[in-house]
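Hi there. Long-time user, first ticket. I'm pasting a complex I've been working with (about 1404 residues overall). I'd like to know whether the download I got is complete or cut off, because the file seemed smaller than I expected. Thanks.
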Amino acid sequence: MAVITYRQALHDTLREEMLSDENVFLIGEEIGVFEGSYKITAGLLEEFGEKRVRDTPIAEEGFVGAAVGAAMLGLRPVVELMTINFSLLALDQIVNHAAKIYGMFGGQSSAPMVLRTPGGGGQQLGATHSQNIELYYAFVPGLKVVAPSTPADARALLKASLADNDPVLFLENLALYNTKGEVPEDAPPAEIGKAGVTRVGSDITIIGYSRMATVATQVADQLSEEGVSAEVIDLRSLRPLDRETLVESVRKTGCAVIAEDDWLTYGVGAEIAASISDGAFDYLDAPVRRVAAAEVPLPYAKPLERAALPSAESLNTAVRQTLEAVGHRR
Amino acid sequence: MAVITYRQALHDTLREEMLSDENVFLIGEEIGVFEGSYKITAGLLEEFGEKRVRDTPIAEEGFVGAAVGAAMLGLRPVVELMTINFSLLALDQIVNHAAKIYGMFGGQSSAPMVLRTPGGGGQQLGATHSQNIELYYAFVPGLKVVAPSTPADARALLKASLADNDPVLFLENLALYNTKGEVPEDAPPAEIGKAGVTRVGSDITIIGYSRMATVATQVADQLSEEGVSAEVIDLRSLRPLDRETLVESVRKTGCAVIAEDDWLTYGVGAEIAASISDGAFDYLDAPVRRVAAAEVPLPYAKPLERAALPSAESLNTAVRQTLEAVGHRR
Amino acid sequence: MAETATRSKPASSGSKSRRGTRSGGNRVQQRQGNTALGSESQETLRDYFRQMSLIRRFEERAAQGYTQAKVGGYCHLNLGEEATVVGLMSALRRSDYLFTNYREHGYAIAKGIEPGRVMAELYGRTTGTSKGLGGSMHMFDTEVGLLGGYGIVGGQIPLATGAALAIDYRGGDEVVMCQMGDGTTNIGAFHESMNIAALWNLPVVFVVINNYLGMGTTVDMSSAESELYKRAVAYRMHGERVDGNDVVAVQEAAGRLVEHARKTGEPAMLEAVSHRMKGHSVVDPAKYRSAEDAEAAREADPVATFRSQLISAGVLDEDGAAEIERAVQADVDAAVAFADDSPHPDPATLFDYTYATPVANDSRRLPADPVF
Amino acid sequence: MAETATRSKPASSGSKSRRGTRSGGNRVQQRQGNTALGSESQETLRDYFRQMSLIRRFEERAAQGYTQAKVGGYCHLNLGEEATVVGLMSALRRSDYLFTNYREHGYAIAKGIEPGRVMAELYGRTTGTSKGLGGSMHMFDTEVGLLGGYGIVGGQIPLATGAALAIDYRGGDEVVMCQMGDGTTNIGAFHESMNIAALWNLPVVFVVINNYLGMGTTVDMSSAESELYKRAVAYRMHGERVDGNDVVAVQEAAGRLVEHARKTGEPAMLEAVSHRMKGHSVVDPAKYRSAEDAEAAREADPVATFRSQLISAGVLDEDGAAEIERAVQADVDAAVAFADDSPHPDPATLFDYTYATPVANDSRRLPADPVF
Ligand SMILES: Cc1ncc(C[n+]2csc(CCOP(=O)(O)OP(=O)(O)O)c2C)c(N)n1
Ligand SMILES: Cc1ncc(C[n+]2csc(CCOP(=O)(O)OP(=O)(O)O)c2C)c(N)n1
Ligand SMILES: [Mg+2]
Ligand SMILES: [Mg+2]
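Hi, the file is complete. Here it is re-exported in full:
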């Protein structure tokens, strides 16, 4: 079992899948000669050649749509969208086409493809380059959306996504690429649609996904030193959403805090909060709390950016306040 | 006070605003020679000429972006996007540009424009032409989103949107165009960011917007005949969201049902449910219930379409079940 | 000094004057082409006539079905475009792939789908091309290689390009045809995909049906270069224009470009100048059209024209023509009967077509169902 | 027979061979143009040199600021493009409008913003061009008509077209310049906006800075028509190419097109062939570039070239040049000092720039704030 980065896990899994299935190919901007904006695909052009690693013009609608068309004929494209911000330019091909091919035509064809793309702020990239808009995909029937937070999950969910016959939005995060973790090489693909309980606890449930799942774990660790037993749930799959796991946990702990990198109002956490408030109605001892980004176009200047984004500190504060509200004693 | 259709109210208000401010102009596909896909702009090309009523090529990203640029120089474009489904092609210009102009450049310029577009299913237009994706706009700081459900609101909110210095997504609905209502001609512009209590009641709160606000009223009327006193809230503004009005109502009634035309998971109703579950935590006698569209690419065939979409019947059922859950006796 | 690109003079003087009017210049020029019957066999020519007549009659019945509320949603007809449709489809093999816009009933039939299944789709029945889930705009049939009619303007272009990429990837010898309207050449996806297809040398023929109108907007109102085939130049792609009222000319041009693509992998663009005889969709009264223009469209009627041509050329006599017309009438009647007798989808199947691979926790809730 | 569009032979044989290599043909051809000093006054020429030197020095200091962690985010420099930048900006009036991509520091300075305010933006300070909210990619100044640097590739093109629409609407005599890179000509927004500008006759000059690279992707890898100015033909728009290393030639061409647009309202496209001396952004080591290519970029250095030209032509002597260089060095030092001394934005102002018109119930919550 190797300890590798999230980046390496993605790279290695892509390579393995390309070796084992010649229908798998990579397509996107700057993934070949440039080796990927975030170097996930480094070395793959050299190893697999231009047919399997296809550099595209800057034409998100065009090359994402081309991947959809190729998938309809049975290939398995893995698209890299440089960041999720640019995916807006391809949204019509994803939402109105990829997601509808199977249903609209009565199940005759589908679009088995993986759309890899990182979200995330915190790098001073400014308002248009720091967004977390996975909601746009999680909302759409016909798409599946997964969001690994660890190198092991990156591997297991990428394998699952490539084995799936539907279009899968595979959410990465700029801040996770250099994080490390153990990656069992013989682990089976993950099950899409299942959340993971990554820390078992009894006092409070903290829910996150992607970067904020790792922040949640961090905060749980901090709190455990103070005798608080926090359960952490990593959603892993945003669509389908595993409501059962969420509700089961909150029925046990009686309270929950959601940690999300996107904007609060209408964000992914809204559905989580609504679902928990519904499914654990009789068990909740305090309102479900959400920690999310301030609702502003994210500023460039560091002090403002820092103030706007959720962090271990803000999550910690919210967890403590919730524990206080339910009368938890440390 | 005239009784006119929602369509007529939009038409008349556009005309008035064009008469009173020569910076106001209309731009969109088929709005001039064709008189609008849904005839909102009928006659305006003839009256105001090609400068004020500009037919565009089929180029959503191009003409919406052109409207943003024109707004930056102080014009007041009213864009018609034929249906909200096609707005996906312009989303980058709306979300990454219009919504960011004010904040990203430190308040030096803004994009005062109104993006009119209808949502709505139920016309057998199939999966790509029947979506309700106002969420994509309601989620974005920098945008404002309003959704009138009556002719009077259409007028009052359109006036408010045109008076506003920010980009406003003005949500219409195919099923509302022919609905009628009283329109006071001297009413002031509405206040963006405020919901309306359209029926006062004490037993349950029903919340809707756009078409579903009218369905909510209909159901409240049905129930009142049976002695149920339902309060109806029409959101009117999705961004900003008037949580106070919602919570105040539910603190009184103790239970709530949300009626929405979009998909349930991650839909607009998720935020409403989350907000109510939080703000009225100590007052809720039953979980907040949501009535929404089935999560499928909407099929063409009538029996399937009918089954998939929310209606007065499904809302009525959910309200009755919620009343039962709280032990309401008729 | 800098190099300078050729700058052709616009046909009309400014944007203003182009609004609401149509410059007829090019159109007349198109109509005057000598319509020879080419080297096609008499049998082929008669079959073209049969197919064109079938599509004509089918579309008339589709409109009627709409009036009778048997057909719903949007319904766009190929009336006036029959020669183009049949000419194009005759250039394709069954194994070749076709992507179209929403105006595709005729293409579906000419590509080889039973008219009954096409009508059943309009009627929203389980026997339809898309099991009734797609409707008029969204026909599909893997068997005959119709990979979809698409309702989003331009949406089919990236998909078609991607299908050609898959063919190239596998070294297959199929060709993709991507049909679209004149108005569609102004959308971003057109540009992105034309560039990609040319850059990567993909076997796809982009066909623009220039019926001079996108809804009510004329080509002159929407395209700065109104000779649409010239836009191929921006991608170093071959482009040409053909009289879309001439089935033989269309078949010849399309066949040549398709076979060239098959042999070399090179894409091409073909503009077929055509007429839309009726409104944009069944419900559009087309009040914006001038009397002359509507008259011109009626006069250009490709089915009537081809009929007379075949009769003058001795390929058909009046009786033979009438017999074909009776036969297609019977085919359409049968299609309607088939559609009418077919079952509506069962609401219980609502959730069967969202995902190809079932996964845990998929939402299968009706509007009145609670979340928990 | 159908009409046929000209089909120019691609420079290289197929898509495969174009990957990872760069066809040098056009480039050499560009470099050989005779660089005359034109009819500009000596003072103007010296000022061009001053501005070019200022931008050079500024960008070097910006890179340094990045290394010192004074500057964050993405940071794209104009190193190698100084002649283009200064030539273009000299063609505009202060009242003309400019929209650019994210590689705009030099444009901001040459359009008239104090270098200190540009540096302060990079430093994220309240005195910056966008109050520190925009950063390197998002400079803006209403006073000098810089209507924004934009980070989304192609995002500025529709906006610029719309600004030109506003000028046309009001009958003003301003002109819009819309700057973009070579890679940007492949995105849909380019096509849609070029068409709209030509169709509606809008006073905008689209300038493509062809530095042969979009990140690591060459023009040959991304554009089926690699002579980018020829793409204007698809819109019946005038297009031309100029040597972007020649400040006088750039000024002349841009000035001519800008004045033509001012007089007639007609848009145009200008391609300036240029070099990117360093990586795509400050952090890019550009390993993908061949040694010759990197060497060629270094050799083409427009600042050094122009300096020698001015000296040989007697417009400057070595002392005069050195004096200018000292002066711009001082300007840049002052800019850095100004930036360094300027205040960081106060977190309390976080919610002040979301809406221009305040309305009820706006969310002004920090991450740790509860909803209720
Ligand atoms: C992206 C998008 N924008 C607008 C529409 C509405 N619309 C449907 S058909 C049409 C006109 C298309 O004209 P053309 O391409 O010439 O095809 P034709 O209908 O003439 O066959 C328009 C604007 C749409 N379906 N999709
Ligand atoms: C829509 C979009 N896609 C991708 C990117 C990432 N990106 C930033 S710059 C760039 C290359 C642009 O090249 P070019 O237009 O030639 O401009 P240059 O950087 O050479 O000035 C890319 C792909 C982006 N910012 N926006
Ligand atoms: Mg047309
Ligand atoms: Mg470049």
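A couple of notes from our side: Chain B touches chain A through 51 residues (CB under 8 Å). Residues D 181-183, 211, 213-214 surround magnesium ion (ligand 4) (CB under 6 Å).
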